[in-house]
Structure formats: C-alpha cells, structure tokens
Amino acid sequence: MKGNGMIKNKGMQFFLCLILAASTALCRAAGPEEVHKNLEISVNRSSKAGIETKKWTEERELLIQELQDLELKDAWIQFQVERTQRYLLSEEKNIAVLQENLAQAGKTQNTLAPFLEVLYLDLENHVRSDLPFAGEERNRRLAFIRASLDDPDARLSDKFGRLLDAIQIESDYGYSVDIAQAVVEDMKGGPGQVFVFRLGRLGLFRLSEADSHFQKYTRSMGEWQEIFKPDIGELKKAMEIARKKRVTTVVELPLGSHAGQGERGGGI
Predict the structure, then answer these.
(1) How far apart are CA 224 and CA 187, in angstroms?
(2) DSSP per-residue codes, 205-250
(3) Nearest-CA neighbor of 268 among 192, 259, 260?
(4) How far apart are CA 143 and CA 118, in angstroms?
(5) In this structure, what is the dihedral angle of CA atoms 26, 28, 33, 34, given to the nearest 10 degrees?
(6) What's the CA dihedral at 129, 133, 139, 142 to 10 degrees?
(7) DSSP label of 183
(8) pLDDT per residue of the chain (268 residues) written in tens, 0 to 9
(9) Concatenated DSSP letters for 15-38?
(10) Dist CA 193 CA 142 (whole Å)
C-alpha cells in the first residue's frame, strides 16, 4: 500500500514538472512583448470586471433602498386602509342614528304642523274677540305668523318660536296698562282726538280731549257705551297713576259688563 502511494506521488510530481516546463517554454517562446500584452489584457479584463461589479453593487443598493421605500409605503397604506375602515364604520353608525332622527323628525313634523295651525287659529280668534286695542300692530303680527306658517322653506322650529312669541305678547297685554291717542268719528259731538286707556284686559276706556265724553267698551255688546260724567274724575286719576304722575291709590271705574248710564263698576 505504501509503495503504491509513493508511486502516485512521484507520478504527480512528474506531471507538475512537465506543466511548469511547458509554461516556461511557452513564455520563452512568446517573448517579453507578448507577455506584456497578455498581462495588459488580463488587467483590462480585471478592471472591466471591477467596474461591472461596482455598477452591480450600486444597482443592488438602489434596489434595496427602493424595496425598503415600498415596504414603508405599503405599511402606510395599510395604516390608512385600517383607519379609513374604522372611519367608515363610525360613519355608518352615525348615518343610522341620523336616519332614525330623521324618521322621528318626520313623525314630529307630521304631528306638530297641525298643532301649530290649531294654536294659530286659537290666537286669531282670541285677537278678533278681544278688546279692540293696538289693532294695527296685532293684525300685522298675525299676518307675519300666517306667512311664516305657509312658508315651505321655513323651519318648523322657527314657526313654533314665532307663534309662541306672539302668544306671550298677547298674554302680557293682560298685565300691562297703556294710554294712547286716537282719532274717532263716533263720539258724540263729532270726530276728534281722544285718549284711549287700557287697564290690562279688565277694561278699555276713552276720554275726549275736552273731557266732555267718557266711554267704556263693552265686550258683550261689542260697542262703546257712554259713562256718567262724574266718573271722568276717577278715570283721569287712574290715567295719572298709569303715567306715574300720581301715587297709587284706590279709584273706582265702571268695570262691570253693563256699566252703562247710572251704573257704577268696581274699585281698583
């Protein structure tokens, strides 16, 4: 076995020697110029390979950077998608609530709109049957509310609010006093200036500037009735109290339903 190994080693050494000898012979045969040329070709090849390697390395870095950017963009898109999905889910819930509210609002409108008409009719009847004062102002207010109720573009809340304001104003008339001047043509003695005195809704009186006529409006009869002249002093006293020109005191005015000739009313 050892002998065979030695023979193989010697054969290998001999083969290498032959290759070296052949290479040396070729180099001697080629000459220096040929060797230099071959070396130059090898160097150029090596340089070209290095340039291509560098270029490939740069391209590889660019590809890696691009891949990282794409991964970041993909992560951002996923985040945006998840956030949008959450937003859409929230909006779907809001839409469901809005739809329910709209349905309830529709039911409320169908109920409230006729109710407003009933309120307006009551208000209109009240004004028509009430004491005849501030007629122009009150009729103008009724016309405004009527136009508002008939306006299809007006909000139901606005209609309701305006109607409540008018009802409140009418209610306040019952707790206030007012003195105004007016020109009438049905007073005895011909047309002329009169003072109209409203005591809440308890009574409505008018007194001529010459203090010659004193009348009270009778709601049940719907007309003005003449009052005894001695009551003029009490009426003037009440008017001075209303104007805050006299200390509040007790006065007697004809407040009864039929305080006509020869009849006295209650004290205030």
Answers:
(1) 9
(2) EEEETTS--EEEEETTTTEEEE--GGGHHHHHHHHHHHTTSS----
(3) 259
(4) 16
(5) 0
(6) -60
(7) E
(8) 545 545 445 544 544 454 445 445 444 545 666 655 666 666 566 666 667 777 788 788 888 888 888 888 888 988 888 888 888 888 888 888 887 877 776 677 777 888 899 999 999 999 998 999 888 999 999 999 999 999 988 888 899 999 999 999 999 998 998 988 887 765 555 567 888 889 888 889 888 877 667 888 988 888 888 877 667 778 888 888 888 888 877 777 777 654 444 344 444 3
(9) HHHHHHHHHHHHHHHH-HHHHHHH
(10) 28
68 class by beta-carbon count within 10 Å (0-12 exposed, 13-18 middle, 19+ buried): exposed
Whole-prediction pTM? 0.55
Sign of CA dihedral 218, 224, 228, 234: positive
